[in-house]
Amino acid sequence: MKEKPVAAGAGRSLLSGRGGTALGVGMATVFLSAVVLIPLAAVVWKGASQGPGGFWDAITAPDAWAALKLTVGASLVVALVNLVMGTLIAWVLVRDSFPGKGVLDLLIDLPFALPTIVAGLVLLTLYGTDSPVGVTLVYTRAAVVVALLFVTLPFVVRTVQPVLLELDREMEQAAASLGAGPSTIFRRIILPNLIPAMLTGTALAFARAVAEFGSVVLISGNVPFKTQVAAVHVFGRIESDDTAAAAAISTALLVLSLLILLAIDLLGRWGARRG
Length: 275
Fold this sequence. Notes:
Low-confidence stretches: none
Strand content: under 5%
Order of helices and strands: HHHHHHHHHHHH
Distance between the termini: 47 Å
Structural class: mainly alpha
Number of strands: 0
Oligomer: single chain
Radius of gyration: 24 Å
Largest sheet: none
């Protein structure tokens, strides 16, 4: 049986498609390697250059360990607050109508656009020793939490908001027609659909808070064992020409961030399986 000849144009299209795919993958790989993979590998290599014992000593030094504990603890608090308040804000923006709603929706993204050092200056002006609102938080752990709340505000809001917009309101109306109350409708119909987005936004907020530097460097005062977060401690180690210790602490933060990204991916897969 004679095979049908492949048209010359189709052959060229197939070859160009394969060539284009290979070129695109190659360019993406080179770019990601140069911008992300090689720098991260260099940090890990530098952090491990003193061996496992030196690495462990660097991250368990009293000042480094205190900074790591403060960073993780404050980030957990911020993530939990964002879980509740971010969901509430997303609900208000989607389900309620009120004057200034468009302005509020626009302000949610302000922490994304504002340089974090400027955010720190704003918070220092607002909650410093000469606070215009009479609230002095400067150089306290509460100031660290407030600064982290400011920069992580959009994450839960922007992950929950699209889910609320796409949620089928007919299911809620059907449940109401069958006698279900608002709390039952929220608990049985709305919340199960929101949970994957809520957890994803919370994990992103936690990852962002762990790595924050600019917004806390001014308002926290960077007092060792009290208000110094891990990113600021790393900066201090570099200034002291102790790059190995700085790299070791950075590697610990990197591992923590990778675990968070893995959790986000698993949450996304779980949400996809739920439909």
